[in-house]
Design brief:
By secondary structure, the protein is α+β, with helices and mostly antiparallel strands. The protein has one domain (2-138). Helices cover 36% and strands 24% of the residues. It is globular, with a radius of gyration of 15 Å.
């Protein structure tokens, strides 16, 4: 699967996420970088996406937990798009999630892990990680 983002600091965001993912035991050795060749006049390749090879076990939960934890450290609107090998995709959107209560955080991780681990679901899914006040309004 691939993880990517967009915006002027996309490569920096991906490098930061890569550092987080490679520090997780269940994901160690499963995370790589997809780079485009350097453009003329630049010093090196451009990081376009991260690749993650999920295997059996707790890798989907580890990936979900780590991506959400990383998103909680970001400021502003950051979107991470996860594209599975069968071209299904999931977009994680985080905005002001630092204040999610533990129950909401556990539910977010479970929802993402279930979507990443579901092999029979088709199509695109967007899971918005909403600020706590918005989650209370939705209930």
């Amino acid at each position: 699967m691939t993880l990517n983002t967009d915006g002027p600091k996309a490569a920096d965001q991906l490098r930061s996420l890569h550092a987080w993912l490679t520090d997780v035991d269940e994901l160690r050795g499963r995370v790589g970088c997809k780079e485009s060749p350097p453009e003329k006049g630049t010093l090196g390749p451009l990081l376009e996406a991260l690749t993650v090879a999920l295997g059996p076990g707790a890798a989907a939960t580890a990936l979900a937990t780590t991506v959400i934890a990383w998103l909680r450290t970001r400021r502003g609107e950051i979107r991470i798009k996860v594209t599975l090998p069968d071209r299904r995709s999931l977009e994680l959107s985080a905005r002001n999630v630092a204040d999610l209560d533990p129950a909401a955080l556990r539910q977010q991780v479970a929802d993402v892990a279930a979507l990443l681990g579901a092999q029979d679901q088709q199509g695109d899914t967007t899971l918005a990680i909403a600020p706590p006040e918005q989650r209370r309004e939705e209930r």
